[in-house]
UniProtKB/TrEMBL annotation:
<dbReference type="InterPro" id="IPR052578">
    <property type="entry name" value="PI_Transfer_CRAL-TRIO"/>
</dbReference>
<dbReference type="GO" id="GO:0008526">
    <property type="term" value="F:phosphatidylinositol transfer activity"/>
</dbReference>
<dbReference type="Pfam" id="PF03765">
    <property type="entry name" value="CRAL_TRIO_N"/>
</dbReference>
<dbReference type="InterPro" id="IPR001251">
    <property type="entry name" value="CRAL-TRIO_dom"/>
</dbReference>
<dbReference type="InterPro" id="IPR036273">
    <property type="entry name" value="CRAL/TRIO_N_dom_sf"/>
</dbReference>
<protein>
    <submittedName>
        <fullName>CRAL-TRIO domain-containing protein</fullName>
    </submittedName>
</protein>
<dbReference type="InterPro" id="IPR011074">
    <property type="entry name" value="CRAL/TRIO_N_dom"/>
</dbReference>
<feature type="domain" description="CRAL-TRIO">
    <location>
        <begin position="130"/>
        <end position="288"/>
    </location>
</feature>
<feature type="region of interest" description="Disordered">
    <location>
        <begin position="1"/>
        <end position="25"/>
    </location>
</feature>
<dbReference type="Pfam" id="PF00650">
    <property type="entry name" value="CRAL_TRIO"/>
</dbReference>
<dbReference type="InterPro" id="IPR036865">
    <property type="entry name" value="CRAL-TRIO_dom_sf"/>
</dbReference>
Length: 310
């Protein structure tokens, strides 16, 4: 998640990968044959709670004269209300409190208006970028801790929020969630984040972006990740914890006997094979180029930003 420092990346041990011409264009538009998840049908009680929540929100939304009103109105869609109700298991009071907290946080933080020029220095090395979609059309958010390039905790957090917002703008019709791949190859523990920083990230993700995580795929997890994972696990919702998968190289690979089979993932079961990068046991030799990536990302998600319906 951009929280580690590493040595310079080494050349691949496979000569064929070094000789192959890399591609530099990120995949930022979904494949035509994606199959979005089917939305569950709501019962009468759930419909009533959504109506009640909508009525309450109408009493606290910004006035139309406020410059942030269009942004807030775009955020407070029925889909947003639905996600907050699901996140609180249809407990109306809990969902209302959670959503109201997010409304105030967004007014103060303005996550959808973060300046790309301020964020770009964090993105220069390719420690965090989008490229690809899973079979259900979820954008694929790649994180490479070994490319960590900053000690600015505030801008690191804003970079993460910026990426969350841009990922939402990359979502095709019928898709509400993002997949994450964390590639720990070459990562060191030297600049491991503080527990407070890790908790801050989890707080933002769980409290202000509920029901936005599809899967989190862990590639080549080192000992220090497992140590930190144990420290932050108590702060992770059990539903979120179940979405974390450890990637194996081959289908049916049970070499990791320390983990239950349900925790393991063979990526071609989740992603189109032509979108799986060589670092994740695939054949797509992708070479991150900040100029190409940043231009494409802003073209699709707004430069400096764009207002959308959430």
């Amino acid at each position: 998640m951009g929280f580690f420092r590493s040595a310079e990346p080494k050349a691949s041990a496979d000569p064929s990968l070094n000789e192959k011409e890399p591609v530099r264009d990120p995949i930022l538009t979904v494949q035509k044959d994606y199959q979005p998840p089917t939305a569950p049908v709501l019962d009468d009680s759930q419909q009533q709670k959504l109506t009640q929540l909508r009525e309450y929100i109408s009493t606290i939304i910004l006035p139309e004269t406020d410059d942030y009103y269009p942004n807030e109105k775009g955020f407070l869609t029925d889909a947003t209300l639905h996600r907050y109700m699901r996140a609180r298991k249809w407990d109306f009071e809990a969902a209302k409190t959670m959503l109201e907290s997010t409304i105030h946080w967004r007014r103060d933080f303005r996550p959808d208006q973060l300046d790309p020029s301020y964020i770009r220095p964090e993105a220069e090395t390719g420690k965090m970028y989008y490229s690809g979609f899973d079979l259900a059309g979820r954008p694929l958010w790649v994180m490479r801790p070994r490319h960590q390039n900053s000690k600015d905790n505030d801008r690191q957090i804003k970079h993460i929020v910026f990426c969350l917002e841009r990922g939402i703008r990359l979502m095709p019709k019928g898709v509400e969630t993002i997949d994450i791949i964390i590639d720990f190859k070459g990562a060191l523990a030297a600049h491991h984040p503080s527990l407070a920083t890790s908790k801050k990230f989890l707080e933002i993700l769980s409290n202000h972006y509920p029901e936005r995580l599809g899967y989190a795929f862990i590639v080549k997890s080192p000992w220090f990740f497992l140590t930190s994972f144990k420290l932050i696990s108590p702060f992770i919702d059990p539903v979120t914890r179940a979405k974390i998968k450890f990637v194996v190289e081959k289908s049916g690979d049970n070499a990791d006997t320390k983990r239950d089979a349900s925790e393991l993932a063979y990526l071609p079961d989740y992603l189109p094979e032509d979108q799986i990068e060589t670092e994740f046991y695939g054949n797509r030799y992708f070479n991150f180029d900040i100029d190409i990536y940043w231009t494409r990302l802003l073209e699709l998600t707004g430069d400096p930003y764009k207002i959308i319906d959430y």
